[in-house]
Amino acid sequence: MNRARIIYNPTSGRELFKKHLPEVLEKLEIAGYEASCHATTGAGDATQAAITAVERGYDIVIAVGGDGTLNEVVAGISQCENRPKLGLIPMGTTNDFARAVHIPRKIDEAIDIIIKGDTIPVDVGLMNNEKYFINIAAGGRLTELTYEVTSKMKTILGPVAYYIKGIEMIPSIKATHMRLEVDDEVFDGNKMMFLCALTNSVGGFERIAPDASINDGYFTVMALEECTLPEFARVITLAARGEHLKDPRIIYRKAKRVKVSTSGEIHLNLDGEYGGDAPAEFVNLMRHIEVFVPIDEIRDIDRV
Ligand SMILES: Nc1ncnc2c1ncn2[C@@H]1O[C@H](COP(=O)(O)OP(=O)(O)OP(=O)(O)O)[C@@H](O)[C@H]1O
Question: How do the domains of the chain map onto residue ranges?
């Protein structure tokens, strides 16, 4: 019998999941899984729980929570050799990765995708040979927005929390000096932000990296050169429509390896949470984890 380990963050998604846990366990049992669960207790616990699940030989691990919980589970699985398949029940505020692979926010629909059993291999990012990400690594004042929004704000306000924080932060958004090595190219100068995306879904925008493929072995790298606030507002408006790539201030490349260093300080953001400071090197681990997805809805992916 296959064994499934559910790792869930009891605080994410307005704390709804716990109520649905009995029916999720029952669905898995009916589908032939011996299922058990672990409620996370705080930062880092989901990573440890995932490592323990691998050590105990679980066939699949199901991450339930927001992008932060997913990141922690991915970090746990990614550092192991016999990696179990990964299921996802999105319960967060933005759920960027789930959005990119078309996993719905409805718990019963998300669990049905796991039970159906179709998986695809996806790329995972590795920073400084130590920290993992499955969606995005980013830096620059703008990207610090995501971790200045508290968990409590998100529970109470949902996505509105980000808009409020965004408006509050506009006056303090300024350029930072960065040296970006993007495979063999170097971009040295002041930038508003840079990002290294594994999917096309970033911060709820689905057109930021329009041609990102989740398993081609490449990051989609984007950076915005220093500009004035009105120019910046214009680029954001273009980004919402997916038309930002024609703006001359945008650098847009595909790369397997990216390095960032700075003369000042840059806080880096990994999958929406603070992930350390530059200098940093990001490497793409091609097709590192198998993820349950609604295969018929996934396009632009090289299936294997
Ligand atoms: N029991 C807990 N109490 C408080 N914080 C927790 C607990 N378990 C996990 N966490 C922390 O909460 C962080 C954020 O959780 P998660 O991403 O699942 O939810 P979210 O913040 O609601 O969603 P999103 O990141 O999509 O906005 C995790 O990275 C983890 O460190």
Answer: 2-117, 133-286
Pairing of strands 185-197, 219-225: antiparallel
Distance (angstroms) between ligand 1 centre and the Cα of 66 equals: 7
Rounded distance between C-alpha atoms, residue 230 and residue 94, angstroms: 26
Residue nearest to atom 5 of ligand 1 (CA): 42
pLDDT > 70? residue 272: yes
Atom 3 (ligand 1) nearest CA: 42
Cα 247 to ligand 1 centroid, rounded to whole Å: 35
Domain 133-286 fold is Tumour Suppressor Smad4 (2.60.200)
Rounded distance between C-alpha atoms, residue 215 and residue 286, angstroms: 6
The residue-averaged pLDDT of 220-244 equals 85
Structure tokens at 292: 């349950």
Catalytic one of 226, 273, 281, 290: 273
Mutate to test the pocket of ligand 1, among 40, 96, 150, 153 (most ligand atoms within 8 A of CB): 40
Mean pLDDT value across the chain: 88
**Of residues 181, 177, 200, 176, the one with CA closest to residue 99:** 200
ipTM for the whole complex = 0.95
CB atoms within 10 A of CB 264: 9
Q: Which CATH superfamily is domain 2-117 in?
A: Probable inorganic polyphosphate/atp-NAD kinase; domain 1 (3.40.50.10330)
Distance from Cα 212 to the centre of ligand 1, integer Å: 26
Condensed to tens digits (0 to 9), the pLDDT of residues 116-132 reads 999 999 999 999 999 99
Our answer to whether residue 281 is catalytic in this structure is no
> What pTM does this model have?
0.90
pLDDT of 304 higher than 50: no
